[in-house]
Amino acid sequence: MIKNILANLIGKFFGSLTVFFFIPLYIIYLGFESYSVISFTLVIYGLMIILDGGITSTLSRELARNDIGIKNKIQTFKTLETTYFVIVLLCISTLFYFSDLIAINFVKSITFDNIQITFFVKIISFGIGFEMLIGLYLGGLIGLEKQVKANVFRISWGLVRNGLIIILLIYKPTLEFFFIWQTMTSFVFAILLKFELNKLLTGFYFKDLGLKIEKSVLNKIKNFAFGMFFISIVAGLNSQLDKLFISNQLSIENLGYYTLSVSLSMVLYFVINPVSVATLPRFTSLFSNGKKDEAIQLFLKLNLIISIIIFVLLCQMIFYSENLMWIWTGDKILASNAHKFLPVIATAYSMIALQILPFNIAIANAYTKLNNILGLSSLIIIIPGYWITIKSFGAIGAAYTFCIVQMIITIIYIYFIRQKFLRTLSLKLLYLEHLIYPLLASLTISYILSHIVLSIDFNSRIIALIAIGVSLTLTFLFTVLFFPKLNLILITRNYIFKNKKA
Fold first, then answer.
1. Model confidence over 42-55: pLDDT tens digits?
2. Where are the alpha helices (DSSP H) in 65-210?
């Protein structure tokens, strides 16, 4: 499992690196408004991935199971793949047909007219379809615990798709070319991944490539799949509605500033998600084999370190938001306009990151009801919330709405997952020692260090980065060492109260 975690860390590191390295270059060569249009296409992708319907998660879980044979796994893969092809065609057709309506209603651009935006949407309709297939096949590799191979593909795809285009943009800096390149590279990697997963399951690259649906497979997985379907819908809407409302009510530049902060905040997710990806198959295996105590021990070993890492990173984004934005983009005016969103959005994403490990526990047990209830409840709040707060306060209103909802969901979600699957753990442990203590320690230490760091007049982005890096390192070390119970070496079974019900 350590090898898989390291592979995912490296894969996510390079994924994050491509985001941080290439976005400023896109802005340089294409202009900020072009980047804002690119941001809007990511919103479309986020909404279309709802059509995944939990199929990728279902495939990953089924291929990770130890209680079914390879023949059943092949049947499951073929059935889900065939279903997915239908969904991808639906996605492409929908975007292509409604491209003009999307351009008119959701992109308020000065640089590009509606005809150009319509053409961009038609191009990306195919690109999004191919990206969805890539996600499906990567999910299959991860389910087979082939994280190293999956991350080799992920890194290669990122470099070719997002990296090589920079060289080409020097000679042809147009959005049309940018979107065509991304679509073509996604198509090629979808084909390569398809053949690789086929080889792992059947032993041959080109054997049994036809489409087929087994009704017995659908009947077997329908309950979990339907649960994941609703989770996908709700999660997709929750993650994209803020940006969709902003693009509908405000200028495209506002979406660009907002999305920059979202991209920077995603560090919190990127750092933690590799651990999640590597441990979900392990949690699934442990619970499916009745090894609940081992699963709880694994949860304990990971949950505290995840909390510490999240809060330490969050504090840097809170206290150094403008400096971090300037270090990243190299543009002080852009940083001045965008940094106000970062502390709020980063707090929201820290809450999402804290939900990842409990979510793995739920998915390992095929439990999706809670996610659907909380997700639907949050939609009831955020839909009118975004409308009202954006009208009253602009894009920052959407950020605060998103943040408050995520904080409430995290508190409730941890409580109910504990009640259902982790009852041997005390609420004091999960809330006080795994959340509040690390948060208070990180905030206190970061606040003290920020007075020193911010007193420096930075003329160099490198010096600013080093100073913030020192602050981050010291915050992490003192957070771990200041409270003896937070010392990672001392995480033991003392935290488990066996045969004791709260």
1. 888 888 877 776 78
2. 70-97, 99-106, 114-143, 147-158, 164-171, 175-202
